[in-house]
Amino acid sequence: MTRLRRGAVWMGVWLAALFAGVAACGDDPAGTGGNGGGGNISDPATLQAIMEQLFVPAALGMIDGFDRLVVAASGGAMDGVVITPTGPNSFAADVQLDLDGDGSRESTLSGTSSGDIQTGASISITSLTNPNEPSLAGTASTTLTQTGQSTVLMDGIVGDISADPPGAGNAASVELLGGTVSLDLLTGNPSGAIDCLVTGEGATLQVLSTFQSDGAGGFEVRFTGNGFDFTVP
């Protein structure tokens, strides 16, 4: 697996896992009285608290998971990774992940990759499961195309992620409505935006997630919508 493919696939699964983490968090991680959201993910204050709590551990968990995937794809034996070749330039993979930062790999991400990134590879996230949250379900897909010597474009980013834990007021979902993100593999920084529809407790919130420079050589994600504007990390 080339560095270009590594960066492109990592970006795709990282995004899917990040939003799956939001959907799985049906209650307010900052406390019901901490931000006024009352556990409703479609409330801007609750959404901000969830994103601030989940962003870093989800990203670190995906980095670790993809590092292990790369080693396994190169023929090495890695704990928590299963790769099944399905044809030329195609494979299916299952990777165990720690997305909440507690040191245990509680989640399993399954996906497929087919085609050549030079002309456009189809990447699909077929499931993300967590035994601690059996109701978690979701899929996502994108097309990856090399656009330069060290850049790759993710286009047509769509997906549906949801969770409905037992108890009233905990259902949450995120629909990826579409987006385009370019990844610079020399810096590891993405740029672009993804449009999302967040639903919780019968209310919806449209969120634009913009990947931009943090001014210090890295990147941040800016979340904007009606009445809110915040960045993480």
Describe it for me?
The chain is an alpha+beta fold. It has one domain. The protein is 24% helix and 45% strand. An eleven-stranded antiparallel β-sheet has the order 1-2-3-4-5-6-7-8-9-10-11, covered by helices on one side. Helix 1 runs antiparallel to helix 3. It is globular. The two termini are 29 Å apart.
Query: Would you identify the regions where 5 or more consecutive residues have pLDDT less than 50?
Result: 1-14, 26-38
- The rounded Rg comes to 17 Å
Quaternary structure of the protein: single chain
Task: Quote the average pLDDT.
Answer: 77
Element-level helix/strand string: HHHEEEEEEEEEEE
Question: How large a portion of the residues is in β-strands, by DSSP E?
Answer: over 45%
Strand order across the largest sheet: 1-2-3-4-5-6-7-8-9-10-11
Structural class of the secondary structure composition? alpha+beta
Q: Please report the number of helical segments.
A: 3
